Amino acid sequence: MTRYSRLAVALAFAGVGSAHAAGDDTLVVGSLDFAFKSLELTPGRDATLSTPMISINPGLAVAYGAAYVSVGYDTTIYSEGRTHLQGDAALPATITMFRSDIVATLGYRFLDSFSLFAGWLHGETGAHTNGFRMQGGTPSFFVQDVSYVEQGPFAGMSFSHAFGNKGSIAASVAYAKLNGELSITSRYATATPATQSQVDDADVKGLSYSLIWTGTLTGSLGYRVGAKYTRYNGDNIADTEGGISEKYTSYFVGFSNYF
Questions:
Q1: Mapping DSSP to helix (H, G, I), strand (E, B) and coil, where does residue 8 land?
Q2: Which of 17, 98, 159, 245 has a 20 to 30 Å separation from 239 between CA atoms?
């Protein structure tokens, strides 16, 4: 495997795609991804919150030999408002959601096709819902805001194969152990009390999987396309039955350029 191919594979897991070497040993790459996501968040006994969204992900990576470090920021730029029926009374409610992540990763390629990496994740999912719920046998208009923050370390491994200068395909799996905090505030038009709030902590664990193809467009400009699936579960939440279940699927396309 050529040095170019090895760096392309390593940078795929740094989240920046493929690029030509900019120097003898060091490579600095900036990137921009666009992703289409399907997100589901189930905060305990409450109904599952889900909506499709589009996110943008700028990133920066530095590779030196077989090692690399990267920082990426992912945030929602569009979320589809979705109306759904909830509860036995089939009362309508409309929900909008957002997701943001800050991820720092350090990795090292031990073999041409095998790498190990570790890092830190700070993620936040928010949801705003308004509609009707039964309160004392009567439909009551409500507004609910949900904030779910998780942060902590993750580690994983990746496997790759390069097809010369045509590009590289890579697959990875990562395990995360995070601290989660769930905050829910509900406001009812006809209820006592009118405002109800809860804040709970969670021990969050889960896996994420990715499959990425990287290649070169022209000169220093590269691209990547791929998919990622993540599933996390949170336990030990004092006041919420069933803990937290979170899963999302992301399909993305991105561009990168070396400096």
A1: helix
A2: 98
**Cα radius of gyration rounded to whole Å, the chain:** 21
185 exposed, middle or buried (CB, 10 Å; 0-12, 13-18, 19+)?
middle
Q: What is the largest CA-CA distance in the chain?
A: 73
Alpha helices in the chain (DSSP H): 3-14
- Which residue segments constitute the domains of the chain, with CATH numbers given? 3-258 (2.40.128.90)
Share of the chain above pLDDT 90, in %: 39
The angle formed by the CA atoms of residues 210, 214 and 217, to the nearest 5 degrees, is 150
Residue type, 192: T
The rounded Cα 245 to chain-centroid distance in angstroms is: 14
My answer on whether omega of the bond before 193 falls inside 30° of 0, hence cis, is: yes
- State pTM to two decimals: 0.83
CA–chain centroid gap for 96, Å, is 17
Give the model's pLDDT for residue 188: 81
